[in-house]
Amino acid sequence: MTNGHKPALYKGTLFFDVNETLLDTTELNQVVAQRLGNRPERAEAWFTSVLHHSLVESVTGSWHSFGDIAEAVLEMTAARYGVSLPADATPLAEIIAAMPPHSDVATGLTALQQQGFTLVALTNSSAALAEKQLKSAGLASLFSRILSVESLKIYKPALRVYQWAMEEMNKPVSECMMVAAHGWDVGGAKRAGMKTAFVARKGQALYPLATAPDLVVSEMDTLAKKLQPLR
Fold first, then answer.
1. Would you call 177 helix, strand, or coil by DSSP?
2. Residue among 1, 15, 34 nearest 149 (CA)
3. Disulfide check for 181: which of 21, 101, 141, 169 has CB 3.0–4.6 Å away?
4. Over the stretch 158-178, which tens digit does the pLDDT of each residue have?
């Protein structure tokens, strides 16, 4: 992990997770909590289970989109707590597509782009959903590419995803960094050889048994200040 006041010297391509890292999931969590009996803790259980079942699909060689998994797990969670879901509810994918960016994201990404970094979205969302998300959030123009695990039909943090992403960008591992607000995401990227930056969003924590990331920041503005391209 980089310490001290001097910016870390780095050049190359920055790969960004989208959900929670760039986009604020507060409204999504509120909607899910409301549908599950106005219980916020159930929304947390739902999202944890969504991640769990995406990994189950990867391990078993199955594939469904992240949006489909989210809906299926919502049904499971509702059944678990004896809650009836509304039949005419807005699909979760529509809510996910309209999530706003965190307040620090636009300025932070703009600064990184102006410093000469190549910005790439690397997401578990489907390609179509990710494009809608970044366009709705006003961030699409900042990214050179939007890479979705849909192309491989396997979810992060499978090492194959990070390796594929670097190959897609034709970049050596030494010039690639994964930026995410999930310990499992930066942990997987680190195992794939990438540099990593953990964005400590509210409620997120690093996995103690994983290799420490190269940087830990509270927001994108701070990341932009700590990274500068080699001249």
1. strand
2. 15
3. 21
4. 999 999 999 999 999 999 999
DSSP string, 43-75: HHHHHHHHHHHHHHHHHHT----HHHHHHHHHH
Place of tokens 């960016």: 101
Q: What whole-number distance in Å separates Cα of residue 49 and Cα of residue 126?
A: 18
**What integer pLDDT is reported at residue 2 of this predicted model?**
45
Tokens 């932070």 correspond to what residue? 108
110 vs 228: CA distance, rounded Å: 13
Angle subtended at Cα 128 by Cα 33 and Cα 151, rounded to the nearest 5 degrees: 110
For the chain, the residue count is: 231
Q: Which of 14, 11, 13, 16 is nearest to 148 (CA)?
A: 16
Q: Which amino acid is at 27?
A: E
In the numeric block, which tokens belong to residue 48? 């944890």
In angstroms, the CA 136 to CA 127 distance is 14
